[in-house]
Specification:
Elements lengths: L1 E2 L14 H10 L4 E7 L21 H14 L5 E8 L6 H9 L5 E4 L22 H16 L18 H18 L3 E4 H5 L7 H10 L3 E4 L11 H13 L14
């Protein structure tokens, strides 16, 4: 088994030592994993914005060094990839990309948690309930623009946006998103953390659309603590959920080096 969505305690809301994730993954039967903690973001000095759900830049080198050390230590037991989960913020993306590449990363996954550039007054957290079609459409257009850079390996929790407006409109716009993602050749992630935490995602309406469009799907643990690597019953429940919709998830993803 493989999983490319793993966090570390450096983001401030995950727990457990880096090595504990690796050991538990091996015990759980995984032969390849990827660490993709929330990327440190190079925000402008003004308005002195602080993001409280990602690692700080001063922790990034320790993160990279730790994962590379574990990769070497466990090379005969499991393949370990180094990556980040990153938003597409148009004004920040180019500088951010060069910064993250300096750590020798293997891949990026797109996790669009905010609209605009996050620090702007009009930016919205995508997991908060909203019936504002402007926020909804900004999420969709920004995610598509991010994937169009061809720097990401897949789209994490694509149904994170918590739109509470017209469901007909939701289905229309999300069908457009699924279709464009398929055209671009990216898998969509069915997210385990949301599944076990009873979040607004996975959203069954979204996954019905993904099944209709024929999107490729990968299960991502979004592991915020090591024991998620050993939840065999949950893995079976997620596969059953997808099977009811006619979706067979991918066994692996071809990682794109940015």
């Amino acid at each position: 088994m493989k999983n490319y969505h793993t966090h570390t305690a450096r983001c401030g809301h995950a727990r457990g030592a880096d090595e504990d994730y690796v050991i538990t993954a091996i015990e759980g039967g995984f032969d390849e994993i990827g660490f993709s903690d929330h990327a440190p973001m190079l925000f402008p000095p003004e308005p002195n914005y602080y993001s409280n759900f990602r690692m700080r830049p001063e922790l990034a080198q320790d993160y990279a060094d730790s994962i590379k050390t574990l990769r070497k230590k466990y090379e005969n037991e499991i393949k370990i990839n180094l990556g980040f989960e990153l938003e597409y913020y148009p004004d920040l993306f180019e500088n951010e990309l060069e910064y993250l590449k300096s750590f020798g990363i293997d891949y990026l996954i797109l996790g669009q948690h905010f609209t605009l550039n996050e620090f702007e007054r009009a930016a919205a957290y995508c997991g908060s309930k909203t019936d504002d079609v402007r926020v909804f459409n900004q999420y969709i257009s920004q995610a598509i623009a991010g994937l169009e850079t061809e720097k990401f390996s897949y789209f994490a929790h694509p149904d994170l946006i918590n739109f509470t407006g017209s469901m007909d409109y939701y289905r229309e716009r999300m069908y457009h998103l699924c279709k464009r993602v398929k055209e671009l050749g990216y898998p969509l992630e069915f997210n385990m953390y949301g599944f076990i935490d009873n979040r607004n995602y996975p959203n069954r309406d979204f996954w019905q659309l993904a099944a209709e469009v024929g999107n490729e799907v990968i299960i991502g643990l979004d592991a915020h603590w090591p024991s998620l690597y050993n939840e065999q019953d949950v893995f079976a429940d997620m596969r059953a959920y997808l099977a009811e919709l006619g979706i067979t998830p991918l066994e692996k993803v071809n990682l794109i080096k940015p």
